[in-house]
Amino acid sequence: MFKKILIANRGEIALRIIRTCREMGIKTVAVYSTADRESLHVKFADEAVCIGPPPSRQSYLNIPAIISAAEVTGADAIHPGYGFLSENAEFSRICAEYGIKFIGATAEQINSMGDKATAKATMKTSGVPVIPGSEGLIDTVEEAKALAKEIKYPVIIKATAGGGGRGMRIIRHEDEFEKLWDDAKTESAAAFGNDGLYMEKYVEEPRHIEIQIVGDQFGTVCHLSERDCSIQRRHQKLCEETPSPALTPELRERMGIAAIKGAAAIKYEGAGTIEFLVDKNGDFYFMEMNTRIQVEHPITEEVTDFDLIKEQIKVAAGIAISGQNYFPKLYALECRINAEDPSNGFRPSPGKITNLHLPGGHGVRIDSHVYSGYTIPPNYDSMIAKVIVSGQSREEVLLRMKRALQEFVIEGVKTTIPFHIKLMDDERFKSGQFTTAFMEGFDLTNL
Protein backbone atom coordinates (compact mmCIF):
# COMPACT_ATOMS: atom_id res chain seq x y z
CA MET A 1 0.00 0.00 0.00
CA PHE A 2 1.09 3.58 -0.64
CA LYS A 3 2.74 5.49 2.19
CA LYS A 4 2.04 9.01 0.92
CA ILE A 5 -0.36 10.33 -1.73
CA LEU A 6 -0.24 13.76 -3.30
CA ILE A 7 -3.66 15.12 -4.30
CA ALA A 8 -3.34 17.07 -7.54
CA ASN A 9 -6.60 18.95 -7.07
CA ARG A 10 -8.44 21.39 -4.83
CA GLY A 11 -11.72 21.98 -3.04
CA GLU A 12 -14.15 19.34 -1.89
CA ILE A 13 -12.71 16.45 -3.93
CA ALA A 14 -9.23 17.04 -2.46
CA LEU A 15 -10.74 17.03 1.03
CA ARG A 16 -12.73 13.88 0.20
CA ILE A 17 -9.56 12.05 -0.85
CA ILE A 18 -7.68 13.24 2.25
CA ARG A 19 -10.38 11.81 4.50
CA THR A 20 -10.22 8.36 2.90
CA CYS A 21 -6.40 8.36 2.99
CA ARG A 22 -6.47 9.19 6.69
CA GLU A 23 -8.80 6.23 7.31
CA MET A 24 -6.37 4.01 5.41
CA GLY A 25 -3.35 5.26 7.36
CA ILE A 26 -1.86 6.98 4.31
CA LYS A 27 -0.11 10.37 4.62
CA THR A 28 -1.30 13.13 2.27
CA VAL A 29 0.19 16.08 0.45
CA ALA A 30 -1.99 18.97 -0.67
CA VAL A 31 -0.93 21.24 -3.51
CA TYR A 32 -2.46 24.67 -3.82
CA SER A 33 -2.37 27.94 -5.70
CA THR A 34 -1.94 31.21 -3.85
CA ALA A 35 -5.71 31.75 -4.21
CA ASP A 36 -6.35 28.56 -2.20
CA ARG A 37 -3.93 29.20 0.66
CA GLU A 38 -6.82 29.22 3.18
CA SER A 39 -8.76 26.28 1.71
CA LEU A 40 -9.63 23.37 4.02
CA HIS A 41 -7.78 20.78 1.93
CA VAL A 42 -4.57 22.71 2.64
CA LYS A 43 -5.30 22.78 6.37
CA PHE A 44 -6.28 19.10 6.67
CA ALA A 45 -3.47 17.48 4.67
CA ASP A 46 -0.32 16.27 6.41
CA GLU A 47 1.82 18.47 4.16
CA ALA A 48 1.05 21.28 1.70
CA VAL A 49 3.03 22.73 -1.17
CA CYS A 50 2.25 25.95 -3.06
CA ILE A 51 2.60 25.27 -6.78
CA GLY A 52 1.86 28.66 -8.32
CA PRO A 53 -0.40 31.67 -8.78
CA PRO A 54 -4.21 31.49 -9.20
CA PRO A 55 -4.48 30.76 -12.96
CA SER A 56 -4.97 26.99 -13.42
CA ARG A 57 -2.32 26.74 -16.13
CA GLN A 58 0.26 28.07 -13.70
CA SER A 59 -0.81 25.87 -10.78
CA TYR A 60 -3.26 22.94 -10.97
CA LEU A 61 -2.38 22.26 -14.63
CA ASN A 62 1.34 22.82 -14.09
CA ILE A 63 2.70 19.29 -14.46
CA PRO A 64 6.38 20.09 -13.68
CA ALA A 65 5.37 21.88 -10.46
CA ILE A 66 3.17 18.97 -9.35
CA ILE A 67 5.82 16.34 -10.12
CA SER A 68 8.39 18.45 -8.26
CA ALA A 69 6.06 18.66 -5.24
CA ALA A 70 5.67 14.87 -5.27
CA GLU A 71 9.43 14.34 -5.43
CA VAL A 72 10.24 16.89 -2.70
CA THR A 73 7.67 15.40 -0.30
CA GLY A 74 8.43 11.77 -1.17
CA ALA A 75 4.91 10.95 -2.39
CA ASP A 76 4.73 7.55 -4.05
CA ALA A 77 1.35 8.15 -5.73
CA ILE A 78 -0.75 11.00 -7.11
CA HIS A 79 -4.54 11.15 -7.04
CA PRO A 80 -5.86 13.63 -9.65
CA GLY A 81 -9.50 13.80 -8.46
CA TYR A 82 -11.75 15.05 -11.27
CA GLY A 83 -11.20 17.89 -13.73
CA PHE A 84 -7.77 19.52 -14.14
CA LEU A 85 -5.29 16.70 -15.00
CA SER A 86 -7.51 13.73 -14.18
CA GLU A 87 -7.93 12.71 -17.83
CA ASN A 88 -4.59 13.99 -19.10
CA ALA A 89 -2.76 11.10 -20.74
CA GLU A 90 0.54 12.96 -20.75
CA PHE A 91 0.34 13.49 -16.99
CA SER A 92 -0.41 9.79 -16.43
CA ARG A 93 2.56 8.89 -18.65
CA ILE A 94 4.94 11.31 -16.88
CA CYS A 95 3.93 9.96 -13.47
CA ALA A 96 4.84 6.45 -14.65
CA GLU A 97 8.13 7.74 -16.06
CA TYR A 98 9.05 9.22 -12.67
CA GLY A 99 8.03 6.09 -10.76
CA ILE A 100 5.00 7.75 -9.18
CA LYS A 101 1.74 5.81 -9.37
CA PHE A 102 -1.07 7.71 -11.08
CA ILE A 103 -4.28 6.71 -9.27
CA GLY A 104 -6.42 6.45 -12.36
CA ALA A 105 -6.34 5.19 -15.91
CA THR A 106 -3.15 4.58 -17.86
CA ALA A 107 -2.12 6.95 -20.63
CA GLU A 108 -3.20 4.39 -23.23
CA GLN A 109 -6.64 3.98 -21.67
CA ILE A 110 -7.16 7.74 -21.41
CA ASN A 111 -6.15 8.22 -25.04
CA SER A 112 -8.44 5.45 -26.24
CA MET A 113 -11.48 7.08 -24.62
CA GLY A 114 -10.43 10.74 -24.77
CA ASP A 115 -10.92 10.90 -28.52
CA LYS A 116 -14.67 10.42 -28.84
CA ALA A 117 -14.60 9.13 -32.40
CA THR A 118 -12.07 6.43 -31.44
CA ALA A 119 -14.06 5.62 -28.30
CA LYS A 120 -17.24 5.12 -30.30
CA ALA A 121 -15.46 2.77 -32.73
CA THR A 122 -14.03 0.78 -29.81
CA MET A 123 -17.45 0.41 -28.20
CA LYS A 124 -19.08 -0.64 -31.45
CA THR A 125 -16.46 -3.35 -31.94
CA SER A 126 -17.09 -4.53 -28.36
CA GLY A 127 -20.83 -4.98 -28.97
CA VAL A 128 -21.92 -1.88 -27.02
CA PRO A 129 -24.87 -0.10 -28.71
CA VAL A 130 -23.80 3.16 -30.35
CA ILE A 131 -25.78 5.96 -31.96
CA PRO A 132 -25.87 5.81 -35.79
CA GLY A 133 -23.37 8.25 -37.26
CA SER A 134 -19.93 8.67 -38.76
CA GLU A 135 -17.38 5.89 -38.37
CA GLY A 136 -14.76 8.44 -37.35
CA LEU A 137 -13.88 12.05 -38.00
CA ILE A 138 -15.53 13.80 -40.94
CA ASP A 139 -13.17 15.73 -43.21
CA THR A 140 -15.55 17.93 -45.19
CA VAL A 141 -18.95 19.55 -44.78
CA GLU A 142 -20.08 17.89 -48.03
CA GLU A 143 -19.33 14.46 -46.55
CA ALA A 144 -21.21 15.42 -43.40
CA LYS A 145 -24.29 16.62 -45.32
CA ALA A 146 -24.42 13.38 -47.30
CA LEU A 147 -24.32 11.32 -44.10
CA ALA A 148 -27.01 13.50 -42.52
CA LYS A 149 -29.35 12.64 -45.39
CA GLU A 150 -28.63 8.95 -44.85
CA ILE A 151 -29.24 8.83 -41.06
CA LYS A 152 -31.93 11.56 -41.27
CA TYR A 153 -32.24 14.84 -39.40
CA PRO A 154 -31.89 16.00 -36.68
CA VAL A 155 -28.17 15.27 -36.31
CA ILE A 156 -25.57 16.50 -33.86
CA ILE A 157 -21.97 17.36 -34.67
CA LYS A 158 -19.47 17.06 -31.85
CA ALA A 159 -15.86 17.98 -31.20
CA THR A 160 -13.82 14.80 -30.94
CA ALA A 161 -11.79 16.37 -28.11
CA GLY A 162 -14.83 18.09 -26.61
CA GLY A 163 -16.52 18.42 -23.29
CA GLY A 164 -19.02 20.66 -21.50
CA GLY A 165 -21.06 21.19 -24.66
CA ARG A 166 -18.32 23.09 -26.50
CA GLY A 167 -17.78 22.27 -30.17
CA MET A 168 -21.28 20.78 -30.29
CA ARG A 169 -24.18 21.82 -32.55
CA ILE A 170 -27.63 20.33 -33.26
CA ILE A 171 -28.62 20.58 -36.93
CA ARG A 172 -32.26 20.12 -37.89
CA HIS A 173 -32.27 21.29 -41.52
CA GLU A 174 -29.77 21.14 -44.37
CA ASP A 175 -29.90 24.89 -45.02
CA GLU A 176 -28.31 25.63 -41.61
CA PHE A 177 -25.63 22.96 -41.91
CA GLU A 178 -22.66 24.94 -43.21
CA LYS A 179 -22.91 27.79 -40.69
CA LEU A 180 -23.25 25.45 -37.69
CA TRP A 181 -20.46 23.24 -39.01
CA ASP A 182 -18.11 26.23 -39.26
CA ASP A 183 -19.17 27.47 -35.80
CA ALA A 184 -18.44 24.08 -34.22
CA LYS A 185 -15.04 23.82 -35.90
CA THR A 186 -14.02 27.31 -34.77
CA GLU A 187 -15.19 26.73 -31.19
CA SER A 188 -13.53 23.32 -30.99
CA ALA A 189 -10.19 24.66 -32.24
CA ALA A 190 -10.29 27.52 -29.74
CA ALA A 191 -11.31 25.38 -26.77
CA PHE A 192 -9.26 22.22 -27.35
CA GLY A 193 -6.66 22.99 -30.00
CA ASN A 194 -8.34 20.35 -32.16
CA ASP A 195 -11.08 21.12 -34.70
CA GLY A 196 -11.89 17.49 -35.51
CA LEU A 197 -15.63 16.78 -35.70
CA TYR A 198 -17.79 13.68 -35.90
CA MET A 199 -21.53 13.33 -36.30
CA GLU A 200 -24.37 11.29 -34.84
CA LYS A 201 -28.10 10.95 -35.16
CA TYR A 202 -29.56 13.32 -32.55
CA VAL A 203 -31.63 11.48 -29.97
CA GLU A 204 -34.54 13.77 -29.06
CA GLU A 205 -35.13 14.41 -25.34
CA PRO A 206 -33.29 11.37 -23.96
CA ARG A 207 -32.36 10.44 -20.42
CA HIS A 208 -28.66 10.79 -19.58
CA ILE A 209 -27.70 7.63 -17.68
CA GLU A 210 -24.19 6.73 -16.60
CA ILE A 211 -22.98 3.40 -15.26
CA GLN A 212 -20.28 3.43 -12.58
CA ILE A 213 -17.58 0.84 -13.23
CA VAL A 214 -14.37 -0.25 -11.51
CA GLY A 215 -11.63 -2.30 -13.14
CA ASP A 216 -8.41 -3.74 -11.73
CA GLN A 217 -4.95 -4.44 -13.13
CA PHE A 218 -5.87 -8.07 -13.79
CA GLY A 219 -8.66 -7.51 -16.32
CA THR A 220 -11.63 -7.83 -13.95
CA VAL A 221 -14.39 -5.22 -14.25
CA CYS A 222 -17.54 -4.74 -12.17
CA HIS A 223 -20.34 -2.17 -12.22
CA LEU A 224 -22.08 -0.34 -9.39
CA SER A 225 -25.30 0.38 -11.24
CA GLU A 226 -26.48 3.69 -12.66
CA ARG A 227 -26.86 7.39 -11.98
CA ASP A 228 -29.47 9.52 -13.72
CA CYS A 229 -27.90 12.84 -14.75
CA SER A 230 -30.72 14.16 -16.94
CA ILE A 231 -31.27 17.40 -15.00
CA GLN A 232 -28.70 19.62 -16.65
CA ARG A 233 -28.30 23.06 -18.14
CA ARG A 234 -26.18 23.61 -21.23
CA HIS A 235 -24.78 20.08 -20.79
CA GLN A 236 -23.70 20.89 -17.22
CA LYS A 237 -25.23 18.62 -14.58
CA LEU A 238 -27.25 20.25 -11.79
CA CYS A 239 -28.36 17.23 -9.76
CA GLU A 240 -28.15 13.45 -10.02
CA GLU A 241 -30.00 10.49 -8.57
CA THR A 242 -29.88 6.74 -8.23
CA PRO A 243 -31.62 4.50 -9.01
CA SER A 244 -33.04 6.15 -12.10
CA PRO A 245 -36.86 6.34 -12.17
CA ALA A 246 -36.61 5.54 -15.90
CA LEU A 247 -34.89 2.16 -15.61
CA THR A 248 -36.49 -1.22 -15.13
CA PRO A 249 -34.47 -4.01 -13.44
CA GLU A 250 -34.09 -5.67 -16.85
CA LEU A 251 -32.79 -2.48 -18.52
CA ARG A 252 -30.46 -1.82 -15.57
CA GLU A 253 -28.95 -5.27 -15.98
CA ARG A 254 -28.49 -4.88 -19.76
CA MET A 255 -26.83 -1.50 -19.38
CA GLY A 256 -24.54 -2.81 -16.65
CA ILE A 257 -23.41 -5.69 -18.88
CA ALA A 258 -22.79 -3.28 -21.77
CA ALA A 259 -20.72 -0.99 -19.54
CA ILE A 260 -18.58 -3.91 -18.38
CA LYS A 261 -18.00 -4.95 -22.01
CA GLY A 262 -16.90 -1.44 -22.90
CA ALA A 263 -14.48 -1.09 -19.98
CA ALA A 264 -13.10 -4.59 -20.44
CA ALA A 265 -12.38 -3.84 -24.11
CA ILE A 266 -9.65 -1.38 -23.08
CA LYS A 267 -8.63 -3.37 -19.97
CA TYR A 268 -9.70 -0.42 -17.86
CA GLU A 269 -8.01 0.21 -14.51
CA GLY A 270 -9.63 2.28 -11.75
CA ALA A 271 -13.00 3.97 -11.31
CA GLY A 272 -14.80 5.40 -14.33
CA THR A 273 -18.17 5.75 -15.98
CA ILE A 274 -19.71 4.66 -19.24
CA GLU A 275 -22.29 7.26 -20.24
CA PHE A 276 -25.40 6.44 -22.26
CA LEU A 277 -28.39 8.17 -23.79
CA VAL A 278 -31.67 6.30 -23.25
CA ASP A 279 -34.56 7.08 -25.59
CA LYS A 280 -38.29 6.93 -24.89
CA ASN A 281 -38.42 3.32 -26.13
CA GLY A 282 -35.82 2.14 -23.61
CA ASP A 283 -33.10 1.77 -26.24
CA PHE A 284 -29.71 2.96 -25.04
CA TYR A 285 -26.63 4.20 -26.86
CA PHE A 286 -23.04 4.80 -25.82
CA MET A 287 -22.18 8.49 -25.52
CA GLU A 288 -18.73 8.68 -23.90
CA MET A 289 -16.51 7.29 -21.17
CA ASN A 290 -15.10 9.32 -18.29
CA THR A 291 -11.78 7.83 -17.20
CA ARG A 292 -11.86 9.30 -13.68
CA ILE A 293 -13.93 9.61 -10.53
CA GLN A 294 -17.09 11.65 -11.07
CA VAL A 295 -18.43 14.66 -9.15
CA GLU A 296 -21.60 12.67 -8.41
CA HIS A 297 -19.88 9.52 -7.10
CA PRO A 298 -21.23 10.00 -3.52
CA ILE A 299 -24.78 8.93 -4.42
CA THR A 300 -23.44 5.58 -5.63
CA GLU A 301 -21.49 5.23 -2.38
CA GLU A 302 -24.62 5.95 -0.33
CA VAL A 303 -26.83 3.34 -2.02
CA THR A 304 -24.20 0.58 -2.21
CA ASP A 305 -22.18 1.24 0.99
CA PHE A 306 -19.04 1.25 -1.14
CA ASP A 307 -16.12 3.73 -0.82
CA LEU A 308 -15.11 4.45 -4.41
CA ILE A 309 -12.03 6.50 -3.47
CA LYS A 310 -10.74 3.69 -1.27
CA GLU A 311 -11.33 1.22 -4.09
CA GLN A 312 -9.43 3.47 -6.51
CA ILE A 313 -6.45 3.53 -4.18
CA LYS A 314 -6.53 -0.24 -3.60
CA VAL A 315 -6.73 -0.96 -7.34
CA ALA A 316 -3.81 1.38 -8.01
CA ALA A 317 -1.82 -0.48 -5.35
CA GLY A 318 -2.36 -3.72 -7.26
CA ILE A 319 -5.14 -5.23 -5.14
CA ALA A 320 -7.67 -7.25 -7.15
CA ILE A 321 -11.38 -6.48 -7.02
CA SER A 322 -13.96 -9.18 -6.35
CA GLY A 323 -15.76 -8.72 -9.66
CA GLN A 324 -19.10 -8.52 -7.85
CA ASN A 325 -21.67 -6.13 -9.33
CA TYR A 326 -23.55 -3.80 -6.98
CA PHE A 327 -27.17 -2.70 -7.15
CA PRO A 328 -28.89 0.09 -5.17
CA LYS A 329 -30.14 -0.80 -1.70
CA LEU A 330 -31.50 2.70 -1.10
CA TYR A 331 -32.38 5.84 -3.05
CA ALA A 332 -30.03 8.84 -3.18
CA LEU A 333 -30.00 12.32 -4.68
CA GLU A 334 -27.23 14.89 -5.01
CA CYS A 335 -27.66 18.64 -5.52
CA ARG A 336 -24.65 20.66 -6.62
CA ILE A 337 -24.45 23.93 -4.70
CA ASN A 338 -22.70 26.50 -6.86
CA ALA A 339 -21.72 30.07 -6.04
CA GLU A 340 -23.96 31.31 -8.84
CA ASP A 341 -27.07 33.44 -9.24
CA PRO A 342 -29.68 31.19 -10.92
CA SER A 343 -32.07 34.11 -11.49
CA ASN A 344 -29.35 35.86 -13.49
CA GLY A 345 -28.41 33.12 -15.92
CA PHE A 346 -26.43 31.19 -13.28
CA ARG A 347 -23.83 33.95 -13.30
CA PRO A 348 -20.85 33.15 -11.00
CA SER A 349 -20.92 34.82 -7.57
CA PRO A 350 -17.48 34.58 -5.98
CA GLY A 351 -16.74 36.42 -2.74
CA LYS A 352 -16.52 36.05 1.02
CA ILE A 353 -18.92 33.76 2.89
CA THR A 354 -20.04 35.85 5.86
CA ASN A 355 -22.23 33.21 7.51
CA LEU A 356 -22.56 29.46 7.00
CA HIS A 357 -24.78 26.77 8.50
CA LEU A 358 -24.61 23.24 7.09
CA PRO A 359 -27.64 20.95 7.25
CA GLY A 360 -27.52 17.62 9.07
CA GLY A 361 -29.70 14.81 10.32
CA HIS A 362 -30.30 11.22 9.28
CA GLY A 363 -29.49 10.46 5.65
CA VAL A 364 -27.81 13.80 4.94
CA ARG A 365 -24.18 14.10 3.77
CA ILE A 366 -22.37 17.32 2.87
CA ASP A 367 -19.18 17.29 0.80
CA SER A 368 -17.68 20.79 0.93
CA HIS A 369 -14.46 22.70 1.51
CA VAL A 370 -15.97 26.05 2.52
CA TYR A 371 -16.49 27.64 5.93
CA SER A 372 -17.68 30.93 7.40
CA GLY A 373 -15.13 33.57 6.52
CA TYR A 374 -13.83 31.66 3.48
CA THR A 375 -13.41 33.69 0.29
CA ILE A 376 -14.51 31.86 -2.86
CA PRO A 377 -11.93 32.71 -5.55
CA PRO A 378 -13.13 33.68 -9.04
CA ASN A 379 -10.52 31.52 -10.76
CA TYR A 380 -12.12 28.08 -10.65
CA ASP A 381 -15.33 26.11 -11.02
CA SER A 382 -18.12 27.67 -8.94
CA MET A 383 -19.23 24.48 -7.16
CA ILE A 384 -18.72 24.95 -3.42
CA ALA A 385 -20.69 22.05 -1.92
CA LYS A 386 -22.67 18.91 -2.67
CA VAL A 387 -25.74 17.96 -0.67
CA ILE A 388 -26.29 14.20 -0.79
CA VAL A 389 -29.33 12.60 0.81
CA SER A 390 -30.40 8.97 0.96
CA GLY A 391 -33.56 7.17 2.02
CA GLN A 392 -35.84 4.18 1.59
CA SER A 393 -37.84 5.65 -1.32
CA ARG A 394 -37.59 8.38 -3.92
CA GLU A 395 -40.42 10.27 -2.23
CA GLU A 396 -38.59 10.19 1.10
CA VAL A 397 -35.39 11.41 -0.56
CA LEU A 398 -37.11 14.37 -2.24
CA LEU A 399 -38.67 15.47 1.06
CA ARG A 400 -35.39 15.01 2.90
CA MET A 401 -33.48 16.99 0.28
CA LYS A 402 -35.96 19.87 0.49
CA ARG A 403 -35.62 19.91 4.27
CA ALA A 404 -31.81 19.86 4.06
CA LEU A 405 -31.73 22.67 1.50
CA GLN A 406 -34.00 24.81 3.64
CA GLU A 407 -31.55 24.37 6.54
CA PHE A 408 -28.54 25.25 4.37
CA VAL A 409 -27.55 28.87 5.05
CA ILE A 410 -24.85 30.59 3.00
CA GLU A 411 -24.62 34.37 3.25
CA GLY A 412 -22.33 36.78 1.43
CA VAL A 413 -22.68 35.18 -2.01
CA LYS A 414 -25.51 34.03 -4.26
CA THR A 415 -25.97 30.25 -4.57
CA THR A 416 -28.08 27.71 -6.41
CA ILE A 417 -29.85 26.64 -3.20
CA PRO A 418 -33.11 28.51 -4.11
CA PHE A 419 -33.14 26.80 -7.51
CA HIS A 420 -32.81 23.35 -5.97
CA ILE A 421 -35.59 24.05 -3.43
CA LYS A 422 -37.89 25.02 -6.29
CA LEU A 423 -36.81 21.91 -8.21
CA MET A 424 -37.88 19.68 -5.30
CA ASP A 425 -41.42 21.11 -5.61
CA ASP A 426 -41.64 20.80 -9.40
CA GLU A 427 -44.34 18.31 -10.41
CA ARG A 428 -42.47 17.14 -13.52
CA PHE A 429 -39.40 16.41 -11.44
CA LYS A 430 -41.35 14.71 -8.66
CA SER A 431 -43.05 12.46 -11.22
CA GLY A 432 -39.69 11.21 -12.48
CA GLN A 433 -40.89 11.72 -16.05
CA PHE A 434 -38.21 14.12 -17.27
CA THR A 435 -35.51 14.23 -19.93
CA THR A 436 -32.38 16.23 -20.68
CA ALA A 437 -34.72 18.95 -22.05
CA PHE A 438 -36.21 19.51 -18.57
CA MET A 439 -34.56 22.90 -17.94
CA GLU A 440 -35.94 24.38 -21.17
CA GLY A 441 -39.33 24.73 -19.48
CA PHE A 442 -38.17 25.54 -15.95
CA ASP A 443 -39.14 28.94 -14.51
CA LEU A 444 -36.09 30.65 -12.98
CA THR A 445 -37.95 33.71 -11.77
CA ASN A 446 -38.95 34.38 -8.16
CA LEU A 447 -36.02 32.43 -6.72
From TrEMBL:
PROSITE patterns per UniProt: ATP_GRASP (PS50975), BC (PS50979), CPSASE_1 (PS00866), CPSASE_2 (PS00867)
Protein name: Biotin carboxylase
Chain segments annotated as coiled-coil in the UniProt record: none
GO biological process assignments: fatty acid biosynthetic process; malonyl-CoA biosynthetic process
Superkingdom assignment: Bacteria
GO molecular function, one term: biotin carboxylase activity
Subunit details: Acetyl-CoA carboxylase is a heterohexamer of biotin carboxyl carrier protein, biotin carboxylase and the two subunits of carboxyl transferase in a 2:2 complex.
Catalytic activity, as annotated: N(6)-biotinyl-L-lysyl-[protein] + hydrogencarbonate + ATP = N(6)-carboxybiotinyl-L-lysyl-[protein] + ADP + phosphate + H(+)
Biotin carboxylation domain ranges (all copies): 1-444
A matching Pfam family: CPSase_L_D2
Entry keywords, A to Z: ATP-binding, Biotin, Fatty acid biosynthesis, Fatty acid metabolism, Ligase, Lipid biosynthesis, Lipid metabolism, Magnesium, Metal-binding, Nucleotide-binding
Species: Arcicella aurantiaca
Pathways involved: Lipid metabolism; malonyl-CoA biosynthesis; malonyl-CoA from acetyl-CoA: step 1/1
EC code(s) of this entry: 6.3.4.14
Domain ATP-grasp intervals: 120-317
Statement: the UniProt record of this protein carries the keyword Ubl conjugation: no
SUPFAM superfamilies: Glutathione synthetase ATP-binding domain-like, PreATP-grasp domain, Rudiment single hybrid motif
Function: This protein is a component of the acetyl coenzyme A carboxylase complex; first, biotin carboxylase catalyzes the carboxylation of the carrier protein and then the transcarboxylase transfers the carboxyl group to form malonyl-CoA.
